[in-house]
Design brief:
The structure holds 2 protein chains of 2 kinds. Chain A is mainly alpha-helical. Chain A is built from 7 helices and no strands. Classes of the chains: A mainly alpha, B alpha+beta. The interface between A and B is large, with 61 and 64 residues.
Chain lengths: ~170, ~180
């Protein structure tokens, strides 16, 4: 996984680009999408409630890693969507949150793994899938990653403002 | 949507989410042998390929070896004096990095990934590849620092467009009644 600042920048850039084609994707829904980009890492609840405490209480194996899966972020996006008003807002919130969460999972994919493969299997767990080769571009503490993400977000921000002025004229 | 329906819907989804975490824990989806299987039959796994994520305990640079732990601990009691844990097993495993390239310098407390073969009753891993995820405490400080900053940016951005309507129990756009 990358750190959250990178995920925020990439989600902002991605949603802003989509907003050029999708009319309802205004700044307020981009903000919801940016929140969505943090959803998979809610598995870090492990730092507050360790999985072995749950295992002790429940008596069977447990992991918070289910949150960092496709099914996990679908459920979390649905929970988040129910925190919005009418059905239109809930639909838009779900799409924005899920889109942000998927951007997080995609950004995490090309990380460096010692066996040379992506961790796609963890995303679709408990469904078994093969692991394609990873390009191995980075590990989380690589400082250049957030720099690239910031430049991408700034570039998209600039184009978005330019487009806004062009439309106004 | 009524608040009670909203709360009921969220409760059902939270139960499903917790259930998913139990399901994921119950499925062994990895293609490499796990530590429990190796611990129960260490000689039987000699020559097997493993892929592990471990914290480095000690580093022996002259012999190009690092030591990690194969261990399993669990909670055995939660009482007024806190949480009591107990080791089911705790074994030192030598990672031989003499025939591999390492992505950066390994130190004690580094978090590493090792891909290699087991030998000597699974007490040694001949590493093919080693990736250093976190070299030292500065890497952890960086990760947590930028993550907290990212969360702050996301939350401030969100609440610049949304506010909480306590009566309706939901978020509503700022600037609208």
């Amino acid at each position: 996984m990358s750190e959250w600042l990178t995920h925020v920048f990439i989600a902002y850039a991605g949603f802003t680009i989509f907003s050029w084609k999708v009319d309802w994707l205004t700044d307020r829904w981009i903000a919801v999408g940016v929140i969505g980009s943090a959803l998979p890492d809610l598995s870090r609840i492990e730092l507050l409630v360790s999985h072995d405490i749950v295992e002790y209480l429940a008596g069977i194996d447990f992991t918070w890693a289910g949150i960092h899966t496709l099914i996990g972020v679908i459920l979390l996006s649905a929970i988040g969507a129910l925190c919005f008003g009418d059905s239109t807002a809930q639909y838009r919130a779900f799409v924005s949150l899920f889109g942000g969460a998927v951007s997080h999972l995609v950004v995490d994919l090309p990380q460096r793994y010692a066996d040379g493969r992506m961790i796609l299997d963890t995303y679709l767990s408990p469904i078994p899938v093969p692991r394609p080769p990873t390009p191995g571009w980075y590990v989380t503490p690589d400082r250049w990653v957030v720099g690239v993400a910031f430049v991408v977000a700034l570039f998209v921000f600039g184009i978005d403002r330019y487009r806004g002025r062009a439309v106004a004229h | 949507m009524q608040v009670t329906h909203r709360v009921l819907g969220i409760a059902v989804l939270v139960v499903l989410l917790i259930g998913l975490n139990f399901a994921v824990a119950a499925v062994d989806y990895r293609s490499y042998p796990d530590k429990e299987a190796i611990h129960s039959d260490p000689a039987g796994f000699d020559g097997e390929q493993v892929f592990i994520f471990k914290k480095v305990e000690t580093v022996n640079r002259p012999s190009s070896q690092v030591v990690v732990l194969r261990k399993e601990d669990r909670v055995v009691d939660i009482g007024s004096d806190g949480i009591t844990k107990q080791f089911d097993y705790r074994e030192e495993v030598i990672v031989d990095i003499s025939d591999t390239t390492v992505s950066s310098t390994i130190g004690e407390d580094s978090q590493i990934q090792v891909y290699g073969q087991l030998r000597d009753e699974s007490s040694v891993i001949d590493a093919d590849r080693v990736v250093v995820d976190y070299q030292d405490s500065a890497d952890y400080t960086y990760m947590y620092g930028t993550s907290i900053l990212g969360l702050l940016v996301a939350v401030v951005y969100f609440f610049s467009h949304w506010r909480i309507n306590l009566r309706a129990g939901c978020f509503e756009p700022r600037g609208e009644q």
